[in-house]
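Table S2 (text version). Query chain:
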Amino acid sequence: MPTYKLILAYDGGKYAGWQRQPHATAVQNVLEAALVQIAGDEVRTTGSSRTDAGVHAFGQLVSLTLDKDMPGDALRRALNAVLPNDVFVRSAEIAPVDFDAIRATTGKRYRYVLRDGQERGIFDRRYAWHVRTPLDAAAMHAAGQALVGEHDFASFQSVGSERQSTVRTIYELSVRRGDAGLLAMPVAVSEPDAARGDLVAIEVAGNGFLYNMVRAIVGTLVEVGRGRRSVDWPREVLAARDRATAGQTAPPHGLFLLHVDATD
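Corresponding structure-token output:
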């Protein structure tokens, strides 16, 4: 009974998140239904990140065990032949028998994409949050540096989390302006620059994230970008340890899980 490690990409627009649902269609439901067609029996999968409804992924890490032995690339091709066109297996390989996508995860990288200005993006409206006020990406980048490092992120956690500790470490956080290339994953986002474009990307990497933490960070930085709050405000929000002090939770459709760091 071989164990497999999959890297999965999906457009989360029409799904009720990653985690299987009894009365709705989640990405995990779709993947496991495809596995039934291949294996002939029910197959349970484990995903590294429980992305919410509407959130997309380029690098969701998945583990599973099959009763039948088949090469990883054969499994990838077989799954892609039966999966809907908004879910795609980027890679599949045989992993150690005890490999578990959740236990193996050591870090994650997310990207959030915004479009600013009065003109709505007709073709990226499902993948970017439209903010009518022009955003100062350089100010947002500067403000975000207060969040880099190990901190208590209680101010950036939505109600309903089951996590016992709200301490997390952000390794890097960057904000830059660009064009549609920011949606061509995984284009690198590094330092802010003077590039023109209607899209703004916030990229954040860390050892783990609380419930809606990335989207709360985005909502907070947008307040800075709009000029409503100072560059020092996120530091004050962090110190308050109170969700009510932070910005709004950004809508889900601009968020992408880019990559999951994992051990074998």
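Notes on Table S2: The chain has two domains: 3-99, 106-262. The beta strands are 3-10, 45-47, 56-65, 87-95, 105-116, 129-131, 149-152, 167-178, 199-206, 255-262.
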